[in-house]
Amino acid sequence: MKKIILASSIASLLLMGCSSTNSTQSLKDVNWKYSRDLPTPKGYEKQIGVAGPLAGNIGDYIVVAGGANFPHKSVLEGGPKVTYSDLYLMKQTNKGLELIKHTQLPKEIGYGTAISTENGIYYIGGTHQKGISNEILYLTLNKDKTDIEINKIGELPFDYHSGVAVLKDNNIYIVTGRQNGQNSKNFYKYDLATNKTSELKMFPGTERSQSIGQILNNGKEDLLYVFGGGTGIAFTDGYAYNFNKNTWEKVQDVKLGTKDISVLGANSIKLNINEMMVIGGFNKEIWDDANLKLGGLKGEELAKYKNSYFTKDPQDFNWNQDMLVYNAKDNTWKSAGKVPFLAPCGEGLVKIDNKIYSINGEIKPGVRSEKIYVGTIEN
Question: Residue 68 is inside which H or E element, if any?
Answer without folding.
Answer: strand 68-69
